[in-house]
Amino acid sequence: MLTELILLFYILTVLGPFVITAVITSIDNLNIRKAVRERLVNENRGYQSVLNPIPVNYSSELYFSQPLPHWADRLHWVDYEAVGALFITRDEVIFVGSTVRSHEPIQIHFEPLSTELRWAGRKLPKGMVYTMVLWLEMSQNSERHYFTSETGILHTGSKTKTREVFQKLKHICESSPESH
């Protein structure tokens, strides 16, 4: 019993600061992502979105398919390249985002008739660790773009929320005015 208590004390003493730092960093990152999204949504109010802007995380095909991250990415456990929102208008779907590292703006326009939508599912992210994050893929002009829903600190609920985004986008692509 004493040995187990000593071991528990040792584990808490050694791992405690790492766990606390990870939790604080995760909460801070979530707050930063929320602030970035709010700014982007406010700056892009001009889009006549038929739905509320949908908070998503984004990865380009290059970023999504890289087998190993940069060391900084490993330390931050970031599986995506940018944060932002999808604006769904009558004529197009627009992703407005900001890259995580350099805060560069990203804006991608998808025309429903020329966009292929596919459920990408889970991926082995950089570092080859299995992930709970689920992705959808939007392809246009042979360029692939990947999106996952914003779920908060943990990725629980990623399947349900990303599936909801997928269904909304699928409905928009299938019910485009030109497709009738």
Structure notes:
The protein has 180 residues and is an alpha+beta fold. It has a single domain, classed as Pleckstrin-homology domain (PH domain)/Phosphotyrosine-binding domain (PTB) (PH-domain like), CATH 2.30.29.30. It is built from 4 helices and 7 strands. The protein has helices spanning 2-43, 61-65, 71-76, 158-174; strands at 54-60, 82-88, 93-99, 105-110, 116-122, 134-140, 143-149. A 7-stranded antiparallel β-sheet has the order 4-3-2-1-7-6-5, sandwiched between helices. A hairpin with a 2-residue loop joins strand 6 (134-140) and strand 7. The chain is elongated. The N and C termini lie far apart (73 Å). The relative contact order is 0.14. Residues 68-76 and 125-130 have low confidence and may be disordered.
Give a count of the beta strands, DSSP E runs of length 2 or more: 7
Hey, roughly how much beta strand do the residues contain? 25-35%
From the alpha-carbon coordinates, what is the Rg to the nearest angstrom?
19 Å
CATH topology: PH-domain like
Q: For the record, what is the CATH homologous superfamily label?
A: Pleckstrin-homology domain (PH domain)/Phosphotyrosine-binding domain (PTB)
Please report the distance between the alpha carbons of the first and last residues: 73 Å
Side-by-side strand order of the widest sheet:
4-3-2-1-7-6-5
Total helices: the number is 4
Query: SSE order in H/E notation?
Result: HEHHEEEEEEH
Stretches with pLDDT under 50, minimum 5 residues: 68-76, 125-130
